[in-house]
Amino acid sequence: MIHLNKETAHIVTLSDEERINRILSYKWIGYTKAREILQTMEYLLIHPKIHRMPNMLLVASTNNGKTILLNRFFEAHKPVVTPETEQLTIPVLYVQAPFKPDERMFFINILEALNAPYSVKERSLRLYQQVVSILKKVDTKILIIDEIHHILAGGYITQRVFLNMIKYLANDLQIVIIASGIRDALSAINTDKQLANRFEPAILPKWTMDEEYLRLLSSFEAILPLKNPSNLTQEDIAMKILSLSGGTIGEISTILKKAAVQAIHNKKECIDLQLLGRTGYIAPANRQKQYEGLLI
């Protein structure tokens, strides 16, 4: 079974139920742009403290891998305790931006991510001081703020106040901020020109019919425990998957998982054009039409 990698070649001998479980489980697939961004994050992690720290703005379409990428980096730099001193170090802290630009909610999100006690009645200034004190104590190097585009849910003045808070937090701590969001994140950050100049954009573009996309399909084929080769890089199959998915890696993964499960159920053990048309998958562009149809 030369179409499979060594690990998957072993999995393919398991029962149908076990193979389906493996298919539906998450598995990281690295690709050039993702590796480049991870490498940049590693560089930012070891950047010495300076007055104006570098920052990153990670931008991607919905379901195109940004949150998975951030989680992979975060998981690689989990909190550690030095045995000799029992000192806790949290090199990377991951939080979500609140659903609206509310600094108090943001500080609470940070404190909850730190498992730190706080008073729900505490004023914003006191919460800010508590956040700064703890992050200094645990020697945090990078603060990841996902879904940064949420700040656009507030008015202009509220947005500016929230962005100023992020700027002051970065200055006080001399840490790197990695903000992340959909395309609107660019608009969110650009409402403050001074802050925008501090954030270097990193874009995860949608997939197109090129060599990198075909390598991605080959990687998927190597980890899907099907007994027969699917030849996913064949032009008609590759184009069909790309067209259905809208060019996002999350949708590509969903399509291939659905198809692989069906290939096991019907004993075909491979993915072809006919099977792709019978998975029950609904493309993102057609989902709204389906919802509207249900309401008629």
UniProtKB/TrEMBL annotation:
It holds the Pfam family TniB. It comes from the Bacteria. This is TniB protein. It comes from Mucilaginibacter gracilis.
